[in-house]
Amino acid sequence: MQPTVIIPTFWTKRRTRGGSSKTRTSFDHPTVVGQTGQLQECLRSLEGVTGLGRIIVVVAAADEATANAAEDGVRDVLADMADLDTFVFGQAELGSLHRRLEQMEFADVIDGVWLSSYGGARNAGLAMAAVLGSEAVVFVDDDEVVDSADFLERALEELGERHSDGGMVYAKTGLYRDDSGALARAGADPWSDTFWRQGEFFDRAVTAVARPPRIKPTSLAFGGCLALHRDMYCNVPFDPWTVRGEDIDYVVNARMHGADMFLDNEWSVVHRPPAPASRAMLFGNDVFRFIYAHRKLEFSKSQVDLRQVTAESLAPYPGRLVDGSIGWRSRVTALLRAVAGKERAVYIDIARRQVPEAQRYARDNCERYFVFQRRWPMLMDRLWTDLPLQSLFTGERRVDRGALTGRFPGIRIE
Fold it and tell me: What is the reported pLDDT for 354?
């Protein structure tokens, strides 16, 4: 089983501070157009990996102008890596996929397969993998470096097999390490996070999964070291409406549909995330993320076809941050951080405006994922080795942007 490697890469014109956390295009630390070293290092690290096959690079950006420049930059990086079997999935490929979805009468799922959100971009990669007939996919983020030749071999160990506890291993994640080899940890929380304690909960979860046995069910997932079997990714998509943390959200999605995420503590990548432009922006995104996750857990209780997932079952992380206290804890923490020092205006705005906005966003959008998910298995069955898309996506296509005079509307057959 040779997996398809999917690398989502997120881009922006320039670094910004603050911003609205409720938008689907507020990426944590996107690559600035013209600075391609991060992706280049990631791709270079794959060159010596055993069993490496097709690599899909999914290019996501906040706006079309940035997307075009980002895609050109990615292609320039790949031009020096002729030994890698790569395919760039950008705006032109997305347009082709959307038109094919319309022809297949799946226009209602287009909003879930897009390049302007974390989950949407990952779903685009999964759709592409289905077109290629991939039995497994492995996600690697562009801010990571693979430092072992047996990376993919470890990714596939037990994938698609029955675990000793009786469950099937259809989804598997590894760990993040720093350049010294130490497990990535959040570190101590400041006093202003007394009612938040995200770092403490995360580090407790990492400590637990680092212990034996090697492969075990987990509430954690690391999107840059993630393997999904066909029986998982063709049935459970990522949630394109979660603002960030789509990897850990996928644990919840899998559990709701009767499966578990497993963590292999002997499988890892080196994680080199750039410094965030704004700590307050990340906190605001987390407020949206955790309030949305809580609403999602509550809404799922009304769905008779889903396995119930509780916040307690996700402890210590993210469980303590997706229970019924998340609303007041978000407000109090925002105010305490405002008192503590930097970015005071942003934190006050989070407490006054963004928390209620996050609650409205959760009410308006969480049901959309469940509707989308029920269509996903049928969509993937239709896309599996789809000949029109397979022939279209065979080989690279460089688009002459100077020849574009307008958008290309889908052809509808009455």
Answer: 95
Q: What is the pLDDT of residue 409?
A: 47
Over residues 372-406, the pLDDT tens digits come to 999 999 999 999 999 999 988 875 455 555 554 54
Report pLDDT digits (tens) over 11-61.
887 654 433 333 445 687 788 887 767 899 999 999 999 999 999 999 998
**End-to-end CA gap in the chain:** 41
In the numeric block, which tokens belong to residue 303? 């769905």
Which domains are delineated in the chain?
A: 4-277+372-394 (3.90.550.10)
Across 41-56, b (16+ Cβ under 10 Å) vs e yields: ebbebbeebeebebbb
Name every residue whose Cβ is closer than 8 Å to that of residue 91 and which is 6 or more positions away in sequence. 59, 64, 67, 68, 71, 115
Residue in 363, 222, 205, 337 with CA at minimum distance from that of residue 284: 337
Longest dimension (CA), the chain: 63
Q: State both tokens at 292.
A: 């949305």
Say if CB 387 and CB 237 are below 8 A apart: no
Token representation of residue 362: 């959760």
Encode pLDDT of 124-143 as tens digits: 999 999 999 999 999 999 99
pLDDT less than 70: residues of the chain: 14-26, 36, 395-414
Taking the CA of residue 362 as centre, how many other CA atoms within 13 Å lie in the half-sphere pointing to its CB?
Answer: 25
135 and 229 in contact (C-beta within 8 Å)? yes
